[in-house]
Amino acid sequence: MIEIGQFAIVGDWDHHDDPPGKHIIRIEPSRAWGIGSHISTRLLLEELPNIIGQGTSFLDIGCGAGIPMIAAAKLGAKASGFEMDRFAAGVATRNAYNSEAVCEVTNTRWACGVKLAGTFDLVCVNTGRDDLVREVLDCPGVANKVITYTDALIYHNEWDLTTQIGALKVFTRIVG
To answer: What residue segments make up the domains of the chain, in order of their start?
Structure first.
């Protein structure tokens, strides 16, 4: 079990009692990425309660095991995930179900051309893939904020780096 801020990530191999007062995220990572121990996931889970509210629309691109997506749902967001690996998408769906979180996982590769139901309040790219982050930032009308872990500095004329916590960066779309 890994405790991070308001959350406890409980693996299917854990036999501990759930800690009281925590949002429980139950995972079976299998072949899918993520058990919650990477610094980017830790920073993200610590920051999410500060930027997610009830009804926030949240998209996790490359969701892997689904930890950020499930955490957002636990905080009241309308949470969705994109995952190009069919097996991982299935794992994320099961993890959401086992965590009693309402999430929608789509098995597809993220691309600007993917049909989306409007703009998301927050898009998460917790993969460390700079190319994917750049693609999201270049896609008009997809997000109001993008939160990511990346080693590269990204400069874009329509986005402003508004928050940086260690390697975690929050970009906000400049309006007007």
So the answer is: 2-173
DSSP 8-state secondary structure symbol assigned to residue 17: P
The answer to whether residue 175 scores a pLDDT higher than 60 is no
Element (H, E) at 94: helix 86-98
pLDDT digits (tens, 9 = 90+) for 22-65: 999 998 866 656 676 777 788 888 888 988 889 999 988 888 88
Q: Give the long-range contacts of residues 24-29, CB within 8 A, separation 24 or more.
A: 24/99, 25/67, 25/70, 25/71, 25/74, 25/95, 25/99, 25/101, 26/95, 26/98, 26/99, 27/65, 27/66, 27/67, 27/95, 27/98, 27/99, 28/65, 28/91, 28/94, 28/95, 28/98, 29/65, 29/91
Tell me, which fold does domain 2-173 have in CATH? Rossmann fold (3.40.50)
pTM of the prediction? 0.84
Q: In the chain, how many H helices and how many E strands?
A: 4, 10
Q: For 2-13, what is each residue's pLDDT tens digit?
A: 899 999 999 877
Cα 51 to Cα 1, 95, 105, 143, 145, distances in angstroms:
25, 23, 21, 14, 10
Of the candidates 27, 1, 4, the one whose C-alpha atom is nearest the C-alpha of residue 15 is 1
Segments in 16-58 forming alpha helices (H): 39-51
